[in-house]
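Entry: TolC family protein
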Amino acid sequence: MNIKPSLLTLVISAVVGMSAPAFSATKEDVARATNASNTLTQLIEKALDNDASRKQFYAQSQAMRETGVASTTLMDPKLKVGVGGFPIDSFQFDKDPMTNISVGLMQQFERGDTLLLQGKKANQQADGVQFQVEARERDVANTITQLWLELGYQQEAERILQENQRLLRELTRFIQTNYSMGQNEAQDLLNAQLQVSKLDDKLNANAQVQRRIVSQLSEWLGAEWLANSQALNASNELNWQALSNTLDQTESTEHFSLLLQHPMVKMANTAITVQQTQVEIAEQAYAPQFGVEVMYGYRQANGMNGQPASDLVSAYLTLDIPLFTDNRQDRNLAAAQYQVGASKSQKDLLLAQMNAKVNALLVDKSKLEQRLSRYENTLLGQANARTKAVERGYQNNTAQFSDVIAAANDELTLSLEQQRLVTDLNLVNSNLAALLGGFNYNTNTPDIALPAHSRASTGLTTTKQ
């Protein structure tokens, strides 16, 4: 019986002993996750500063506020200039005392409080778009975080693959030496070389995925950042303490109190108030509409008494009386009231959908934690024990070298699967943070071109959670 060299035992044990970090977080894990979060926060803040969609929504909200100011202003007065009582037989201004040159002003007033309500409605709509800015911020933060976690997973997988490849290369050189001495078979050497080549291909695929993720980040960080970017040390595990504190405040299946703070729900609330204001505007249609007209008539002719005719002043009050309201005012009011009901139903639907998403994510979170615990406490230990048993069998000529490689590959696969579960758990937490609030970042007011009359500094800073 050939006795396999003891160095083979050490190399194989090192290969199969490579496992992912323990699921139970140590102090070092927490510190690493916190440092990664700090770097990630910087990327999120940079992405938000560069996000064109966020700037678009902010500009739209400002445009609505400006429109609101304009809508509260009375219509411009109308100037009326003309000639009255002009004689066509003489075509002279001083022959007939009825002839006058008139100059007048006309001013129309809106019904009731329509102007104030229109300004109120415009500001409410601007508030809704402002909430859309906040919703966009959460979406960007969630997207950047997910890309960061995926990049962290790929880097962790690269670390595991590189270490296994290094040890397999040592094993290959050792087997090649023994093969030249007649102590190993050719198929063992070929099998080991094949495993090294397979790991080469996996590492190339891993590098491709990493580069693609970094390229995706350039959508927010810019092409210049991509060209000059240095290697990112990402992580597939982050510190979610803020999210955990938030989840402690909610009940098992109803999360409406937390969801009410979501910008999308605030937008739905704003839509309801906008429609309620529209009802008030529709009610103003029952009020009369007033108009004022003042005219001054200049006369050049003499009166019947031979004296210069007096100039004329005329004043008029116009009144638009809504008498036939069945097919106009009544219908518009009913339509506005229906829109209020539709907006409320839309909010209820949104809350139900978001609450269901939270519950689904919490199920995923719970099951992923259970699976990770099983990997840590059972699967990885069993795989390691099995590989050692196969390795001992190979030493005693009761197992083939291919069995040892297969066992090592199984443990490598389990290690990668564990890291995949860690990543998936953090992705779930990221989605929960986007719904319930768990991101910490600072944002500046978007820098947009302002009109000359309102150009001012906009360097305000706000903190989002």
